[in-house]
Amino acid sequence: MEQYEAIFYRRSVRHFSKDPLPERLLDNLKKYMMQVMPLYRSEPFRILLVDRKEQPGAVSGPGRVEAPYYLAFFGQDTMLGRCSAGYLAEQLTLYLASREVGTCYQGLARLKEQPPETQPELKLLFLVAFGISEETFREPEEASRLSLEKLAACKDKLSEESRTILRAARMAPSSMNSQPWRFVVYRNRIHLFARKERLGLKTLERMRDVNMGIVLYHMMLAAEELWLTADLQVSELISERSWKNNEYILTLYWKNL
Ligand SMILES: Cc1cc2nc3c(=O)[nH]c(=O)nc-3n(C[C@H](O)[C@H](O)[C@H](O)COP(=O)(O)O)c2cc1C
Questions:
Q1: Could you give the CA distance from residue 185 to residue 155 in angstroms, rounded to a whole number?
Q2: Which residue puts its alpha carbon closest to atom 17 of ligand 1?
Q3: Which residue among 13, 23, 53, 143 sits deepest, i.e. has the most Cβ atoms within 10 Å of its Cβ?
Q4: Are residues 16 and 121 in the same domain?
Q5: Is there a domain that residue 218 lies in?
């Protein structure tokens, strides 16, 4: 299965087998971890693979799923840092799904110790549990997601490109399935907005930023699937304005090749 297809079929796994993954798969994962594309080149990050066999008590925290392996994502604890980490993590979860490996984001899980050689400004932002599971896939229509009508306001007639990108975006996983993304859609661009966090809880706000990075990766992957030349930019005009319920994040622009 390709990464793009995995967008529609992967689901969060909460029961993992204790069986180890093949060495070759882990080696390839480690190589892929070094090739992931950052959202912002200037954002420092670190990704660490935790093998529970070697570090049995390394992961703790609420909502934690027991798994044989975890990926730990470190970055700056800022909006950009968290968004960037979500963008990186979704590349890896889709990579793992494309190899039939189950995954589950772990927003509140923690590592017992900050690993040595981690720059002090990098904080653990979240983890992703992974391993062999029988629950790795489901049919796309079984996913509980808001309809595109609820998520997107279309300013032009919806182009085939926009429709494909929105379908991929809609399937993105999010903390507590909150789906905080909203889209304003034109023929060759989509403005991405995030719902404002109403409860004012820092943890929810942090996870929302991670969610926005995840959805951005789905949008970019769909654009790539369509062979579009796509770019993410901040529209100055839009970022200067403010909205009651939403916050502007970025705009995806594209051209046909
Ligand atoms: C940033 C983030 C944090 C999450 N944290 C947890 C968690 O702590 N525990 C858990 O069981 N699931 C967690 N999830 C998984 C979501 O609950 C799940 O993605 C969502 O309900 C949609 O379900 P699906 O991934 O099966 O489509 C998290 C997902 C994201 C994106």
A1: 6
A2: 176
A3: 13
A4: yes
A5: yes
Phi (first) and psi of residue 51, to 5 degrees: -100, 115
Mutate which of 174, 205, 209 for ligand 1? The one with the most ligand atoms within 8 Å of its CB, which is 174
Q: Give residue 156's pLDDT band: very low, low, confident or very high (50, 70, 90).
A: confident
Whichever domain contains 99, its CATH number is 3.40.109.10
Atom of ligand 1 nearest to the CA of 172: 27
| Ligand 1 atom at minimum distance from 210 CA | 1
Asked if residue 213 and residue 173 are part of one domain, the reply reads yes
pLDDT per residue as tens digits for the range 170-195: 999 999 999 999 999 999 999 999 99
226 pocket-lining for ligand 1 (C-beta < 6 Å): no
The tally of domains found in the chain comes to 2
Compute the distance from residue 51 Cα to the ligand 1 centre, in Å: 21
Instruction: Answer yes or no: is the C-beta of 61 below 6 A from any ligand 1 atom.
Output: no
- Quote ipTM for the complex: 0.99
Note down the domain range covering 92: 3-131
Residues 90 and 113 in one domain: yes
Query: Are residues 123 and 161 located together in one domain of the fold?
Result: no
Measure the CA–CA gap between 2 and 131, rounded to whole angstroms. Answer: 18
Torsion of the alpha carbons at 242, 161, 91 and 184, rounded to the nearest 10 = 10
Residue-level pLDDT at 8: 98
With CA atoms as reference, report the closest residue to 195 among 163, 151, 143. 151
Strand, helix or coil for residue 45? strand
Pocket test for ligand 1, best of 104, 126, 135 (most atoms within 8 A of CB): 104
Shared-domain flag, residues 108 and 151: no
Q: How far apart, in whole angstroms, are the C-alpha atoms of residue 107 and residue 205?
A: 12
Best of 141, 175, 203 for a ligand 1 pocket test (most atoms within 8 Å of beta carbon) = 175
Q: Is the pLDDT of residue 3 over 80?
A: yes
Domain identity same for 113 and 163: no
